[in-house]
Amino acid sequence: QAPAWLGLAVARAAMAGVSMGEVRALEVRDVDFEGHRILVRRAMSEETSLTPKSGHEREVPLAAGLEVRLREAVRDKLPRARVLLDDSGQTPSRQQVLHQFKRFLGKNGLKERSFHSLRHYFISALMNNGAGAEAVRVLAGHSKLEMTQRYVHAATAHLRAAIDKLGK
After folding, report:
1. Average pLDDT over residues 132-151
2. How many Å separate Cα 112 from the centre of its chain?
3. For residue 13, how many other CB atoms are within 10 A of its CB?
4. Which one of 41, 46, 155, 158 is most buried, by most CB atoms within 10 A?
5. What's the mean pLDDT in 133-146?
6. Above 70 in pLDDT, residue 56?
C-alpha cells in the first residue's frame, strides 16, 4: 500500500503539470479554492525552497479531481504549511518521493517510469485532447514553445485522425 501523500504528489504532477520540486514546495496559501487555481510560486531543490526553474510564478487552474484531494490535504493547516507531508509530518525528500513512486509502480505491475513522466503525461494529454499549444506552454511554465513540444507524445489514434483529414 502506497502512503496517502504519494497519491497527492502523483495527482498534482499529472493533473497540474508541476515538477517534483513544485509538488514538494506547495503551501496551503498557494491553493486558491475560490479562484479554482494553484499558484506555482516555489520549487524545492534538496531542502531549499527557490523560485521555479522558469524564474517566475504561474497559475494553473484546478482540475476537479485534484481539487477534492487538495481540500482534504489542506484541512486544518496554517497558510504557510506545506501541503505535501509524509507520515511523520515532514515534507518528503526527493529520494523519498522517488522511492515510494517506484515501489508503487513495481507492486502494481506497472512499467517503471520516472516521476517526471507525469509532467509529460499532463502536457501530452492536454495537447492530444485539443488544448492549444500556447495555453499548454503557459500552464507548463515553459518560456518557449519548443520546450513544450519536446514533451508532447502523439497517440496512435491522433496520428490516424490527422491522416484521415487528408481525405476530406
Report:
1. 86
2. 18
3. 24
4. 41
5. 87
6. yes
Tell me the sheet residues that pair with 39. 59
Residues 129 and 58: their CA atoms lie apart, in Å, by 22
d(CA 20, CA 9): 8
Type of residue at 164 = D
Q: 18: how many CB neighbours lie within 10 A of its CB?
A: 27
Q: How crowded is the C-beta side of 107, counted as CA atoms within 13 Å?
A: 9
101: pLDDT strictly greater than 80? yes
Cβ atoms 20, 116 nearer than 8 A: yes
Task: Provide CB contacts within 8 A for 14, sequence distance 6+.
Answer: 118, 121, 122
Closest among 111, 95, 103, 118 to 47, alpha carbons compared: 95
Distance, in Å, from the CA atom of 29 to the CA atom of 92, rounded to the nearest integer, reads 19
Report the alpha-carbon angle 60-97-104, nearest 5: 105
Q: Taking 70 as the threshold, does the pLDDT of residue 93 lie above it? A: yes
CB 93, CB 84: distance < 8 Å: no
Average pLDDT, the chain: 88
Threshold 0.70, pTM exceeds = yes
* Amino acid at the residue 5: W
